[in-house]
Amino acid sequence: MTTAGRDTGLRDAAREIGEGVLGPNADDVDATGRFPTESVDAFRQVGFLRALISVEEGGLGATLDELSDVLIELGRWCASSAMILALHSIQVACLVRHGETEALAAFRRRVAAQNLLLASAAAEAEVRGDVRSSVCAVRADGESFTLHKLVPVISYGSYADAVFATARRTPDSAPSDQVLVICEKDEFALTQTSDWDALGFRGTCSPGFVLDARGPLNHVFPTPFGDLSSETMLPVTHILWASLWLGMAKEADARSRRFAQQAARRSPGSLPPSALRLSEMALGVQQLDDLLLGARARLATADADPDYGASIAYATSMNSLKVAASGLLQEIVQKAFLICGMAGYANHSPFSLGRILRDAVGAQLMINNDRINVNNAELLLVQRGR
Ligand SMILES: Cc1cc2nc3c(=O)[nH]c(=O)nc-3n(C[C@@H](O)[C@H](O)[C@H](O)COP(=O)(O)OP(=O)(O)OC[C@H]3O[C@@H](n4cnc5c(N)ncnc54)[C@H](O)[C@@H]3O)c2cc1C
Fold first, then answer.
1. What is the per-residue pLDDT across 26-43, written as a single tens digit (0 to 9) for each?
2. Of the candidate ranges 147-156, 242-251, 364-373, the one whose mean pLDDT is the lowest
3. How far is the CA of 247 from the centre of ligand 1 (A)?
4. Which ranges of 232-386 does DSSP label H, i.e. alpha helix?
5. Which atom of ligand 1 is nearest to the CA of 151?
6. Is the pLDDT of residue 221 over 70?
7. Could you say which of 48, 53, 329, 353 is the most buried, measured as most Cβ atoms within 10 Å of its Cβ?
8. Which regions span the lipid bilayer (predicted)?
9. How far is the CA of 362 from the centre of ligand 1 (A)?
10. How many angstroms does the Cα of residue 386 sit away from the middle of ligand 1?
């Protein structure tokens, strides 16, 4: 099965929203760096915010593959809006796959019933992108907790109904002994510490914050964050990010193909010089598509076979997905510039590639690719066997 040939009801809904809501507002969202309220309203209306939650619990019961298909479609129209849905859905996936307690199940049902929007506070000012290490800690006080965390970036933090934060399990725990904790809006204070005037993904509205939260202790996930990350958060994050990046690549491909076709019509009988690049573009998009399909299949295998899920081969492949997909996206967009030339360089032409290029740069920095490569190198140095 290829992602390209798949057509589900959800994907149709994504195309409709993309064309009718995300696309018409994308340039304004980008130019003004505003939160795409209309996109998130549309996601709420069609149920995308609760897509991964089971039907019995009030969700759509969609599979991760179906959500990945939705993000491929949305990524074509507005990468910021698609990124917001991806970041939200990563938290939902953790809640679905690791929220086995009654308290977490009750919160999950509320996410579905009230279409809550979930944000992430994984990075920390002191450790930057080293998300498997925390300085802040959960402080228990009877049945409640408090948390004080300096977060360099929380996407749509000011608009979220809850923030999923990582922290040390207790003030005495080691930096890597982390938990994931749900902080709800009516129980936290967010003090903004920086502005978000970034090159790309401008609509994600992602400044830094000091997060001061309190809540019930049963909003701390029982699964150690290390396990939760390797089983769910990391692979789901990389799969959903790669999905919307594939959508961006497909849009760059479509714009450059339209441009080359127009050029070909102007000079019948001769091949425009840029046309050869189309073949390279098609190969790049196919590679990205195959990379994503392979990762989706590997996650399914890991779920069915815990030994494979715990293997270094699986961990490095899921890390490599993010590095390779973000790199391929950048290459594809660069090729699109060579095809479209000045029409792609211009900001207000039908072939403009500026926003896609600026968003594509961010893909390499969301957990810095160099940091991921260092992690992979450490794993590979201790890998045994073939
Ligand atoms: C659009 C966007 C949205 C985001 N949304 C969120 C969000 O909602 N929540 C959230 O928590 N975060 C979010 N982030 C931020 C998160 O992805 C970043 O990883 C984090 O902010 C740290 O970034 P950094 O570049 O400052 O630090 P680092 O990752 O520390 O990178 C800084 C430098 O350190 C280098 N480096 C590489 N490896 C190592 C190493 N092993 N040790 C030390 N240095 C190393 C890197 O190469 C780089 O030069 C978002 C980022 C973007 C771009």
1. 999 999 999 999 999 999
2. 364-373
3. 23
4. 234-266, 275-304, 306-309, 312-340, 342-345, 354-365, 369-382
5. 11
6. yes
7. 329
8. none
9. 10
10. 32
Residues 346, 348: Cα–Cα separation, whole Å: 6
Q: How confident is the model at residue 4 (pLDDT cuts 50, 70, 90)?
A: very low
Beta-carbon count within 10 A of 174 CB: 10
Instruction: Break the chain down into helix, strand, coil percent, rounded to 5.
Output: 60, 10, 30
Identity of residue 109:
R
Ligand 1 centre distance from Cα of residue 236 (Å): 18
Both tokens of 7, joined, read 């057509």
Average pLDDT, the chain: 95
Question: What Å distances lie between residue 178 and 124, 170, 220, 312, 355, CA to CA?
Answer: 13, 9, 10, 21, 37
Give the other-Cβ count within 10 Å of 139's Cβ: 15
The answer to whether the beta carbons of residues 137 and 167 sit under 8 Å apart is yes
Question: Which residue's CA is the nearest one to ligand 1's atom 52?
Answer: 366
CB contact set of 46 (below 8 Å; sequence gap of 6+): 13, 17
Q: Is 74 in the pocket of ligand 1 (CB under 6 A)?
A: no
The backbone torsions φ and ψ at residue 211, rounded to the nearest 5 degrees and listed phi first, read -100, 120
H or E stretch at 178: strand 178-184
- Asked if 237 contacts 110 with a C-beta cutoff of 8 angstroms, the reply is no
Identify residue 57 by its one-letter amino acid code: E
Q: Residue 1's pLDDT band (boundaries 50, 70, 90)?
A: very low
